[in-house]
Amino acid sequence: MNQTHDPALRSWVTSANVPNADFPIQNLPFAVLRRAGTDERFRPAVAIGDHALDLRALHATGIAPSEGLEACLDDTLNRLMGEGARVWSALRADLSALLAEGSEHAPALQSCLIALGDVEYRVPAHIGDYTDFYTSIHHATNIGRLFRPDNPLLPNYRWVPIGYHGRSSSIGVSGQTFPRPCGQLKPPDAERPEVGPCRRLDYELEIGIFIGPGNALGDPVDIDDAESHVFGLCLLNDWSARDIQAWEYQPLGPFLSKSFATTISPWIVTMEALEPFRSPWERDTGEPGALPYLSSARNSAAGAIDMQLEVLLQSAAMRDSDVAPQSLSRSNFTDAYWTVAQMVAHHTVNGCNLRPGDLFGSGTMSGNQEGSQGALIEITRGGVAPITLGNGEERTFLQDGDTVILRAHCEREGAVRIGFGEAGGTVLPASSA
Ligand code: MN
Prior knowledge:
Elements: E1 30-35, E2 43-48, E3 51-54, H1 55-61, H2 67-70, H3 78-83, H4 85-99, H5 106-109, E4 113-115, E5 119-122, E6 130-133, H6 137-147, E7 163-165, E8 171-173, E9 176-179, E10 182-185, E11 194-197, E12 201-202, E13 205-211, E14 230-237, E15 240-241, H7 242-248, E16 262-264, E17 269-270, E18 278-279, H8 297-302, E19 304-305, E20 308-314, H9 316-320, E21 326-332, H10 340-348, E22 359-361, H11 376-379, E23 387-388, E24 394-395, E25 403-410, E26 418-428
Parallel strand pairs: 6-22, 8-16, 9-26
Antiparallel strand pairs: 1-2, 1-5, 2-3, 3-4, 6-7, 10-11, 12-15, 13-14, 13-22, 14-16, 14-17, 18-19, 20-21, 20-25, 23-24, 25-26
Manganese (II) ion binds next to loops.
């Protein structure tokens, strides 16, 4: 850790100093944005309190001629992501000093600030490839039990960080809306499938992992080098059509049940900002260790990340009567069976090349306790145990007009709490039937 993590550090942007703010000066996450309702070019920015520091505007002032800032002139973060940890860290140190209380540049930087209430975001990188993992053993077991009651957890699960190749074209940023997907449905007792709007629409509470510098084709990434290939983390909702999924998933895995929409939060929290919140990677007694390419002393000592996650729902009726979103569950990224470094090492062990801006999903993060299940299919046990919302509405799966919001933060004694903002998305009625 370094000066940028100092809990005593405060900013001249005073909203950053409010206790429990998502974006204190110790966080400094990156997004791509512009003033809402304008046709300005999108540009990279860093969050500070309830403002964004426009990095293209900062570059134009000439105050901070850092190498990292040169990489922030595009309308995506891919160039910065490709630069690597040395450049990211130097840029973070510069931004921290510029935004710290007492900075001589505060007056000149005022014109580079935009209120977060006045911005619109875009997906922060060009995402070439998107891979979704399945790293919560609790989620895998809960889902497996519903899809295969006699055989919930397949034998490869404890050895292979399971994943599938997702669809990047339908990834949207918080605020995304999409029509309820249509597809082939086959109720278990029906003789033939039919086509129509999904009836079992679900969310999945996941962490998004943005890749930094890539690796050459044929060149696996060593587990101890893996995190140098990771730019940072965001929130990710892997919307899922469970009825389409149940019919299509064997033998090659999810396809149209997942590819219609994925929503991410706009702000990417860097791995450096997450330093104070690292945890040992631990497994319960009786679980096997990992194979050598997925094992290292460093990964065991601090491979996990203590990130508290929450999913909330606001129905159309709640929205119309100004009822706040209601919390459905809470879990933690330490519930994962595999770490970020293990995901990178596994993804590349066959020589597969990653590129800057590639995105991983962690898989639904469910814990092993009641109230920690990261998807409705788990909470309602496959749709047989509806939940009742505060206003009396019932849900087994999502209804048209429902907004699902993911939130997360990291909090630990001796560190300043940092937040991830949120990833919200809304289901619209099916556009065809
Ligand atoms: Mn998923």
